[in-house]
Each structure stands twice: as C-alpha cells, then as structure tokens.
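Annex B. Sample input.
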Amino acid sequence: MVFEQRRGNSGLRAWRGLLAAAGLALAPVSAWAQGAVLTWNQELLAITQQTSGFLLAGPPDVAMQMAIVDNAMFDAVNVTSGNQYKAFAYSTPAASGASATAAALTAGYQALFGVYSADAWTNVTTNSRFNDITQSGGILDQITTTYNTAMTALGSSQAVTDGIAAGTASANATLARLNGTGAGSATYAMINGLTPQSAPGSGTVPGVYVPPSATNGRPEMYPLWGTVNTVGITASQLQTVMASVTLPGVTNTAASAADQVQQSIASSAYAMNVLQTECAGSGVALSTTVAAACAAANTATGTQLFSPQTLAQNQAALFWNDPGTTIQPPGHWLQIADNVLASADLLTQARVSAAMSTAIVDAGIAAWGDKYTYNLWRPITAIRNCNTSTGYSWNTTLTAASCDTGWASLIATPPHPDYVAGHPAFSGAAATVLTDLLGGSTSFSSTSNSYCNGGTAGYGGADGITIISCNLGSATAAYAAGFYSVANGQCNSISLGTSNVNDSPLICAMTIGFANFVAASEGPLGSEYSRVVGGIHTPFAVTDALSIGNAIGTMVLAANFTQVPEPSTMMVLLTAGLGLLGAARRRR
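Annex B, continued. Sample output.
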C-alpha cells in the first residue's frame, strides 16, 4: 500500500515540520483514525501558504481546492460509514467492513495529488521558488510521504485494503466532477487570469476598475471566475443570488451594469460610503481637512462610523487580511473549522468540512461574478481622483476636503474590483454552515498567519514557511536598512495615538477569540467590517457580500449533505404510504 513518489527525486525541497506542526509525525493508529480528515486539511493549508504568494492560488481557487479535497474525503468516509448522508460525487452501496480511516486518507491523498499534478501547476516556469515546490516535486513528494506514513501505521488488513479502494474511487469521482480543464472549470479561469484584462473605460471613465496591471503591476485576479461551474447550488440559484444585491443610488436596475455604475457613483449614498472608507480605513494619519470632513459627517449623521477606528478594530483588519503567503480567507475558515472539530468523530469532521468548503467555493463564484460584472473601482482610486484637479469629477456631493491624492489604505488593495467583497462572502457562507451544523453558541479562538504588508518577505521557522521578516530596502524613515524582523520586535506596531495606523510592514500572528461563528463573520471584530477598516472596500460592498454568502450557505445545506433516513424509518414511511393508498382505493 506504500505509494512510490511519481516525480523525480533529485533536488527535492522538503517541507520541514508539517507533520510535527499537525501533531501527527509519529502518531499511533488511534490518532490517525481521529485525525485523517484534519491531516489533509492542514496539509492543504501548509501548501496554500507556499503557493498563495504567486499568481496562482488566489482565494477563490483555494476554496475550490478545499472543496475537491474535502468532498472526496466526505464521500469516502460516508460510504464506509453506512451511507448516512446524501453523497456528493461518489454514490455507491455502502462499503461494509472497510476502514473509514484508510478511505479518508486515500481520498485526501489522491485528491490533493490530482490537483497539484495538473498542468495549471506543473507548467508554471516563471518563478524559481514556485518551481522548487511544484515542478521539482516538493508538494507531491510531501503529500506522498504523509500518506505513506499514515498507511504504514494502519497496517495491511482487508478492511484497510477495502478502504483504499473506496477512497480512490471517491477521489476519482470528485476530481472528475470538479477538476476539469475546459471552459467553466477552475483551471480554465486560473490560466486565463494570468493575462491582464482591463474592463472598457478603465483609467479613463470614472467608476471603472483600474487594476495594478495598468501601472505594470500584477494582472487582475481571475476575471473569468464568475463563469466557473457551481459546486453545491445550481447555475440559476447562483444568478438569483448575484442579482439580489444592487449598487447604492441606482434607480434603473434594468440598465446595463456599466450604466448602473455611473448612476451609483453620482449618488450621495455612494459618496458617503467612500467617505466612510476614507475616514475609517486609512493607513496613514488623516490630513487636517479629511479629518474635518469625517467629523462633519459624524455630526450630520449622528454616528461615529466616519471616525478612525479603535485599536482593536484595526488589529482585526490586519488579522483578517489573509493576503498572499498566508492560508487565504477560505483557508482561515478551514483552520477555524479544524480547531472546533478537533475532538469530533471522523464522519462529522468530513461532513462539516465538505459542507463548509462547498458553500465557500460557491460564494466565491458569486462574488467574483458580481465583481467582473460591475467592475467598480476600488475606494483608493475614488478617493485619489474625486475632483477636476486630478482628472475626474465624479460626484458633486463630495467636498474638496474629501479628496486626498496621498491617501493610502491600512492593508494592501488586492487585484480585483470593489463590488462585491470576497472575504465577507466566504465568511458568511462559512459561518452559516458552521452555525447550522455545530450550533450558534460555539466559541473559539483563531490565530492568523504572519505576513508582510509591504516589502519582500523573509522565511524561517522550523517549517520554513513562516514569515519572520520584511525588507523594504534602504528607503525608510523607521530603520536605516529597511529591515523589519520578529527577532527585533518590529511587528504589529500600531500607534496608540489618534490615528491608530499601522507603522510596520511586518504583521505577526495574532489570536482573537469569538463567542460564535456569526461574531467572526459580521461582529465588531469580524471579517465583514474589517475590509472597510482595512481601507480596501466600501461598506455596501461588504454588507452585500455577507448577504450573498449567508444565502449560499443556506442553499448549499438545503440541497447537500442531508441525512438519509434510517431503513426502519423508511419502512415506516413506506408502510404508512401503502396504508393511505389502500384507504384511498377503498374509498373509491
């Protein structure tokens, strides 16, 4: 049952400490039995940290990888546990006597191998570090080592052999359904996301998204992702959810998306949303004139939403940022689920992971669909270009004080449009599923990854994938060498003055506790508003995204992973049904 590594053995990059970090390096059989699903979840998260800093492996793609791996494991565990729930892709009579642990381990391994041996990964040749972990076989060899270690611990009984067969069949079925290469597949959307594809009017028409590629930066992230085939809901349901939200200030919803954008950016509602992001999400101290505009808005509205946010809220924005080189927004929720599920039985772990991942990937498809339907510019573009002196005059309700050509967001702006936000959509879907399956009073703590909010990352730690330093070069006022490191205590430095801005590009891991899943998705320190405090989204973009995620989470649970009635229950229902049929015939 030991699988040979299917890639070359020379020059391989070892992933040190991955098993140790998961607590499974020398685990006995009983530990593997409890942690088979979580083993592959954690392995996927470790891989994501390695790959997410490159052009591939953005948030929606990470969600798809989660859905492939977790659904393969769910079907494998389900079929070896008596088919207690509706199958996802592998529907077959229950594999009586087969090892559910062997099935889960095999399904997870085969699914991961299928994802990372695909051409979308192995054909990338533009980055030496990326090649080191893909083409040289680093990822594939690591997961093979993990699998072989686990299977050796299980032994070679007939139950294990049968479990391997079930896991292999389940992975093949899931890969066949979700890992295609043609139009409508995630792979197609990934590959076509490597080429700049600016929307018509970008850079010349107010309101139209201006991507980093306009100034020789990275391409727009996955402009075709909205066309990817859905996983847990139907295409018509997806369109309904996408159409359920509307830009503020739009009076003619029958107009084209481009015309709706023009209606919106001219409205006072949109102007106030932009101002709120400008006031709450600045990464630098607000100018005197902008601060006055924020204070005036507070007086006019009777709220404090236009003020610089609290230290805790700014820290939450950094906590939920989840940029490249981290486990990404979907992975952050998988980590949360893994922590909560640590003591659950294998079937529960598999079902919850699969249901949540399925909802998250469909939420990403919906969010990216709306993003590239409306192509709405980011707040930073609106704030820097809101009067005639900067080339635009897109809203007459904004005062000159609100325009700031030097404004910068607290966290770096990702390469995709503002509306709708991605993270709140993922979070709403995840929180809805977890609340339904695990309860609304489940409290937990979550720890974020370290990352560089600017500059070049330096890696270290036992696993070789933890960021321990950031280098901005020599041009910096804070440090002569421009080098920020954990060892020197130069991370998470948020000034305690009135601005509460981040003073260091090195963001270290931080832990936040939440009373329940909803508090993590939409509470004061939740992911939803963190994107406004981070300065990268308008308030309406995050509230509408959360609404989309919540709706999709509910739809996914209604159609998938439902419990199959016990045979005795079905017999009772059948008997009752026959009795009613007989009574009806007698009445005739």
